[in-house]
Structure formats: C-alpha cells, structure tokens
Amino acid sequence: MNVHGKDAVNTSTTTTGTVLVDTLRWGIAGPGSIARRFGGQLLTSEVGSLAAVASRSRERGEAFANEFSPEGAPAVVYDSYDELFADPGIDAVYIATVHTEHVRLAMLAIEAGKHVVCEKPLSIDHAGVMRLVEAAREAGVYLAEGYMYRFHPQIARFAELLESETIGRIQHIDASFAFASDPAPDHRLADPQLAGGGILDVGGYPVSIARLVAGIAEGRSFASGTAFAEPVSLTAEGTLSAQGVDDWAAASLVFASGVTANVRTGIRLQDDNTVTVIGSKGRLVLRDPWVPSETDGSDIDVDVVGEPGRTIHIEPDRQWGLEGDAVAHNVRAGQSPQITWADSLGNAAVLDRWREAIGLRYPFEVETAFVPTADGRPLKVRGDSIMKYGTITGIDKRVSRLVLGCDNQLTIGHATAMFDHFTELGGNTFDTGYIYGNGLMERLLGRWIANRGLRDDVVVIGKERTPRTAIPSRSRGSSARPSTACRPTTSTCI
Ligand SMILES: NC(=O)c1ccc[n+]([C@@H]2O[C@H](COP(=O)([O-])OP(=O)(O)OC[C@H]3O[C@@H](n4cnc5c(N)ncnc54)[C@H](OP(=O)(O)O)[C@@H]3O)[C@@H](O)[C@H]2O)c1
C-alpha cells in the first residue's frame, strides 16, 4: 500500500520494526553529492525505492536514475522540481539541493502532499524551520531534517549509556565537526549567496549532539524524542573569509542544568571530529559520531574512574537508509523521535545565535533585503481563512480583528515569516511602536510592506508617542503609512 499525505493505514513488520506503510516511492530533488549516499542506501531498503529524480540538468538526472533505480523499474527523470512534486506516484521526497533552496522546495513538496526528508540545515535560519514545521503540521505529512547520524544505532547506544548514568552526572560536552577544504569562490561552501561556511554546513552537528546530551542530563530520553535542551547562554568566536563566510568558529554553551559544552566547526581546517562527554564518574567518547564506517562499524570508549577502560563496538549500518525508512515508521506522527520538529527548531535557533555572535549575516539577510515568500509564490490570503474584519471611522479599508504585534521580530527573515503567514491567514493589521525596538520593528515592518507591495492593503497601528520616547511615529522611517494614532500608554488601540 502506498501513502499520500494523511492516508496511512495498516501496519506490517520488517527487520527495522513496525512500519505503517509497506511501500515508499521516493523522488529525489537535486541529485548531487549527498543524494548519492541516500540513493545508494535506498537500494537496500525494505520499504523505499527510487521512483523519480529531478535535476536542473537532464544528464545529471539520467545518470542518477541509471545508477540508483531498482532492478527493472527505471526511475522517471524530471527536468524541474515542480514536475516531481506534481507526480501522484511519489510518496516521499528527499531534498538534497544547496541550503538556500531547502525551504522553498520543502514547502512546495509539502503543499503537494509529499512526505519530506530535507537535508540539513532545514533552513538557513529558525524562521524558515518555523514555516516548514507549520506547513507539515497543517498538511499532515512527515517532515525531517537530514541529520542522518541520529539514525545510526550507535547514537541510541550512546544515549542509553548516558541515560543509565554509566559516567554519572553529565557535566560537559566537547564536540567538533570541521574539515580542511579549499572550495572555489562559487562553491556552496565558500559563497555567501549560498549560505556558505562551517556553521550551517556542519556546525549543526556538534550543536545538535550537545543539545541532545544536555536534554538527557535533564532526565529526558532519546527514544521518546524529547532529549534536547536549549542553552541559556552562548558565546562564540569565529574567523570569516574574505568572501564573508565562517571559515572556522567555536562556541561555548551553558544550559540551565549547569551542563556546559564547547562546539567547533570549520571548512578550512581539520578538527578531531569526535564527541566527548564528561560526567561525575568518567567519560564517554564517540570516536566517529557523524559518518561511521559503512564497512567497519564504529566504537564508543567508556572510561569510568577506577575501572579498566572499555570499548563498545557498534556494527556498521546504513544511516541514510534508516533515515528514509523512518518515514514509514512515523508517518502518522509526522516526525521521528530521532529528530523531531521541536529539536530542529531549537537547533536552528542556536545556529542563528552562533552566527550572530561572530557577526555572520548573509547578504540576503540584511535589513533592507528583499525576502521572497517561503514557497517563492506570490503572497495571497488562503481560501480557508476565517479572519473577521471590522471598520474604524476614518480608515477606508477593512481592519482584521486579529492584530499582529510587531514587538519581537528581530530580523527581516523572522519578520517576513510571521507577516507572510499572518497575511495568508487573512490578517492585515499590525501594531507597532518605536519603543519596541528603537525603531527596528517599524523598519522591518516597512521593509516587508515595501517588499510585498502591500502599502494600500495593510492597517498599521502606530504610537504618536510612548512614555519614554515621545517621538512622533511618522518620522521613524517606516514606509508604512500610520493609519491611526494611539494614546500614549496603550500598546494596542483597536
Ligand atoms: N547529511 C549529510 O551527510 C550531508 C552531507 C553533505 C551535504 N549535506 C547537505 O546536502 C545539501 C547538498 O550538499 P551536496 O554536497 O550534495 O551539494 P552539491 O552536490 O554541490 O549540490 C547538490 C544539488 O544542489 C543543486 N545545486 C548545486 N549548486 C546550486 C546552485 N548554485 N544553485 C541552486 N542549486 C544548486 C544541484 O541540483 P540539480 O541537480 O537539480 O542542479 C545539485 O545537484 C547541503 O545542504 C548540505 O548541507 C548533507
């Protein structure tokens, strides 16, 4: 039985456990380097198989289909991702393009009712992950960020050892993923327009395992999908390239429990790429946490004070294959315990903070940037909008009864995600004030209104003056025309 969107029904059992669907017909978007790993491991899946591939290059698409199609069932090759998403014969899509295309393509795939595994980082920022999670929740489809290492059995074993307090109370994590490379200026790792640099490429791995271990330290289990925690503080240093991406960066995290972590990443120097956890009774070392050998397996070193050291050997496994098969296991929940939506949201927020701490902002993130809609399509109010509207004397347009407060959107990316979604739901009224961010909120709202060409459609509640600023809102640089004035001390005045 095949599954589209919410139609998961009966169950069956394979060597990887109970599955809710017994066939997953995969489409792959962007058959580049990492897609080859996924495609190769699909060949040995008990539930999944390659059914289609989409590439901007027919030659690349055909070569991929020839190599990874199941015996006797050649995959369809599409010249555009849109055609792939429109194919009713595809159940799930694996998105393996460059970072900057992840949100747009995942949104389109979700809108088409496909289950989605999208390469890490799911989005270049937390705002994009927020849009995707909301879209997947509404569409009732599966969504996972491609942190494949979480699916390897060594991570479940590592978590068990920590949960059973093999090394006592967890105190510190040291984790790195950095490699020495010399990418050409237009390569995705070097080009700021493609969100290059280490933090977004591989920095998410050490951050994600530090958050996982900190979650275990707070008493939550990996198997339940709740083992993560968010740092209460983050300090960082980094080296930016002449092109403006992070060549190397290190961060110190502190969690509410008192657990600390050092994480490092880079694209121009080699680190040891291990994970060490220090506890009150000893330490655990994952020697090869991210890409354990597919032939030799991997080792976890356990050193408990006063006992002889031991090494636990983990047999080789197919982590990309397990990541794909997890769709069949978790299709009803829409997410896997190995990497939940909340976990991806938290990880993205930390990567935002890490980049901010080292002053890394991509050209498409500057305050004045044009930010496209998440799916790249023109913004419009959804057909199922239930928004109610009223009128205000003197304002010649309808006013949504729900008003969006512009007091916490700190970047143009976050502001765009919030304002676009509010508009899709039928909202057109925004409440702002200079005092909320010393003019930042108004500048971001104004930029968004200009980007979307919505000046005549929105209603903006400004403040003539506020207790501390006493600055007339009309002079604050927003391209939005204030439509009404508030009394001095109110924050919303409809
Ligand atoms: N989970 C992992 O182990 C792992 C490992 C490596 C990379 N990744 C992630 O996977 C993604 C792809 O990495 P990769 O090394 O496989 O990349 P890649 O081979 O350089 O490119 C992958 C695909 O992206 C599209 N693409 C390439 N350059 C582009 C550009 N300038 N503009 C728009 N699209 C472009 C191409 O799709 P078309 O064929 O359609 O042209 C290409 O086939 C990245 O987000 C990366 O973080 C994950």
From TrEMBL:
<protein>
    <recommendedName>
        <fullName>Gfo/Idh/MocA family oxidoreductase</fullName>
    </recommendedName>
</protein>
<feature type="region of interest" description="Disordered">
    <location>
        <begin position="467"/>
        <end position="494"/>
    </location>
</feature>
<dbReference type="InterPro" id="IPR023210">
    <property type="entry name" value="NADP_OxRdtase_dom"/>
</dbReference>
<dbReference type="Pfam" id="PF22725">
    <property type="entry name" value="GFO_IDH_MocA_C3"/>
</dbReference>
<dbReference type="InterPro" id="IPR000683">
    <property type="entry name" value="Gfo/Idh/MocA-like_OxRdtase_N"/>
</dbReference>
<dbReference type="Pfam" id="PF01408">
    <property type="entry name" value="GFO_IDH_MocA"/>
</dbReference>
<feature type="domain" description="NADP-dependent oxidoreductase">
    <location>
        <begin position="414"/>
        <end position="464"/>
    </location>
</feature>
<dbReference type="InterPro" id="IPR036291">
    <property type="entry name" value="NAD(P)-bd_dom_sf"/>
</dbReference>
<feature type="domain" description="Gfo/Idh/MocA-like oxidoreductase N-terminal">
    <location>
        <begin position="24"/>
        <end position="147"/>
    </location>
</feature>
<dbReference type="InterPro" id="IPR036812">
    <property type="entry name" value="NAD(P)_OxRdtase_dom_sf"/>
</dbReference>
<dbReference type="InterPro" id="IPR050984">
    <property type="entry name" value="Gfo/Idh/MocA_domain"/>
</dbReference>
<keyword id="KW-0560">Oxidoreductase</keyword>
<comment type="similarity">
    <text>Belongs to the Gfo/Idh/MocA family.</text>
</comment>
<dbReference type="InterPro" id="IPR055170">
    <property type="entry name" value="GFO_IDH_MocA-like_dom"/>
</dbReference>
<dbReference type="Pfam" id="PF00248">
    <property type="entry name" value="Aldo_ket_red"/>
</dbReference>
<feature type="domain" description="GFO/IDH/MocA-like oxidoreductase">
    <location>
        <begin position="157"/>
        <end position="284"/>
    </location>
</feature>
<feature type="compositionally biased region" description="Low complexity">
    <location>
        <begin position="472"/>
        <end position="483"/>
    </location>
</feature>
<keyword id="KW-0520">NAD</keyword>
